[in-house]
Amino acid sequence: MLPGPQLMESMRAVGYSLKTAIADIVDNSITAEATTIDISFNAEAGSTYVSISDNGFGMDADGVRQAMKLAGRNSTSARAAGDLGRFGLGLKTASLSQCRVLTLISKRNGSLVGVQWNLDHLAESGEWQLLVLSEDDLLGLPHARYLDDKVSGTVVLWEEIDLSDPDQAGFTEDFTARMADAKEHLALVFHRFLEGEDGQKITIRLNLDRIAPADPFLSQNRATQLGHRERIPVEGGEITFRPYTLPFINRMSAKERSQAQLNGPLRDNQGFYIYRAKRLVIWGTWFRLVPRGELGKLARVQVDIPNTLDHLWALDIKKSAASPPPAIRRALKQVIDRIIQPSERAFRHKGVADDSGRGVMRTWLGLSSREGFYYQINREHPLVENLVDQLNAEQLLALDTALKAIESSFPVTDAYVKLSGDQPQKSPETTETALRDLAIGYWRQWSAGGGSAEDFINGFKAAEQFSRCRDTHALLTEVTGLGVTP
Ligand SMILES: Nc1ncnc2c1ncn2[C@@H]1O[C@H](COP(=O)(O)OP(=O)(O)OP(=O)(O)O)[C@@H](O)[C@H]1O
Ligand SMILES: [Mg+2]
């Protein structure tokens, strides 16, 4: 028994959003070997539409009918390596999740053909009636003229968009905002096509605005670390891994930062970036193989899977939920340990008290007790020692009280919130001039207390403040005037 046409209405609930639905249509254009894809929209309530037009190989009259069929193609049959489709459903389900009228216009061998699914018509007639449009009907539709100057191509037109109630205030703004969101989504998921990797360059435009690729690995930034490519053979296919460690946040431009943040702070975007036939399908997850830690937040791994392994990955219709099979999970786990390390190292390098800082006189000490960790000003730092030497008992007590007050109010939570919100921390000035000024200040204080130049140099040469200095000894010597004695 055939399902009733209300099936179309039920399929609206598959869970597409405007952006994922548009991306699904773009998939089809890419599979059709398009080099230019034009997306247009009108957000005014009453005359809404979205069109996705391409210069791909198009379809003839039979082709468009077949394309509009649910599962018009077998989901288990082999597909060409670059085919982004799998189920024979996307065009219908993605489109009708967003609109009530779907028109497919196509051109191949010179003739224009068009068919339409209209949900209201299906409901009224109670029959599976695909409307065939005449050339006159077609030319009255937005963007049908797009194909005039093209040998072949396709226009997918969505009308009566019902994302929310069109009569409600703010509909147009909401629609427009979602299209802006869609633009970012396309820039990300198709970035490798937009970049023209392997010479397959595709232009995608939104209302004629060219969409620039958004590479989640910031590979153009010289501070990004690129790991070794690894291949794991799986059931006759091959999965490729490529680890990246993003630069520390202070070394990202504001644009790069927002590009790397995707849908939230860096911490939430670490993990595997799964590409199916070069199209990003899932990202920012370790598949629960390891917890998402603050220290791994710079680690991202590009994973390439060919469409021949779809059956392994339990792909869903939207191709947005997929989980790796046990054999691959085991391999992933091994790769992970090697991968997160560089990201953690990038962080620890910036840490307060750690082993890499041996030989450096820290101003703050990171300590821990059974109740937890805390920070204390290092009483052995020459600045503190020098001060202590100059004070009487009463003043010492005052100093101790002041230091304790400073320590107890160290804004550790605030710093944590800011860092995990990816706010860049302004590093202290480390230019030679700034360091010299600092040294002069210290020397004044030191010599005022009667300390010798030699003790000053020996005391301060390891101070954290000068760890970025090229030659601390020379700087301190110069400052104390030792270097100018004949
Ligand atoms: N822009 C296009 N140009 C040429 N052919 C197209 C285009 N869009 C769709 N088609 C044809 O229509 C068919 C159905 O598309 P649809 O998106 O429904 O399924 P699919 O891409 O095969 O699989 P999936 O459900 O995984 O997307 C495609 O297989 C293709 O043959
Ligand atoms: Mg498709």
Could you please describe the fold and organization of this structure?
With 486 residues, this protein is of the alpha+beta class. The protein has three domains: 7-210, 2-Layer Sandwich (Heat Shock Protein 90), CATH 3.30.565; 225-348, Ribosomal Protein S5, domain 2 (2-Layer Sandwich), CATH 3.30.230; 364-480, no CATH class. It is 35% helix and 20% strand. It has 16 helices and 16 strands. The protein has helices spanning 6-10, 18-31, 61-68, 90-96, 119-125, 135-139, 171-189, 191-195, 254-261, 326-348, 382-390, 393-408, 412-420, 432-448, 453-460, 472-480, and strands spanning 36-42, 49-54, 99-108, 111-118, 131-132, 153-161, 203-206, 209-210, 225-226, 230-234, 237-245, 271-276, 279-285, 299-305, 364-369, 372-377. The strands form three sheets. An eight-stranded mixed sheet has the order 5-4-3-6-2-1-7-8. Strands 9, 10, 11, 12, 13 and 14 form a six-stranded mixed sheet that branches. 33% of the residues are buried. The structure holds adenosine-5'-triphosphate (ATP) and magnesium ion. Residues 24, 27-28, 85, 90-91 line the site of magnesium ion.
Compute the gyration radius: what is it? Answer: 31 Å
According to CATH, the homologous superfamily of the largest domain is Histidine kinase-like ATPase, C-terminal domain
At the first level of CATH, what is the class of the largest domain? Alpha Beta
Structural class: alpha+beta
| Shape label | elongated
Name the strands of the widest sheet in spatial order.
5-4-3-6-2-1-7-8
**CATH architecture level-2 label of the largest domain:** 2-Layer Sandwich
Small-molecule binders: adenosine-5'-triphosphate, magnesium ion
> What share of residues is helical?
25-40%
**Poorly predicted ranges (pLDDT <50, ≥5 residues)?**
350-357
- Briefly note the CATH topology name of the largest domain: Heat Shock Protein 90
Into how many domains do the coordinates divide? 3
Distance between the termini: 106 Å
Average pLDDT over all residues: 86
- Describe the largest sheet: 8 strands, mixed
Query: Beta fraction of the residues?
Result: 15-25%
Number of H/I helices = 16
How many β-strand stretches?
Answer: 16
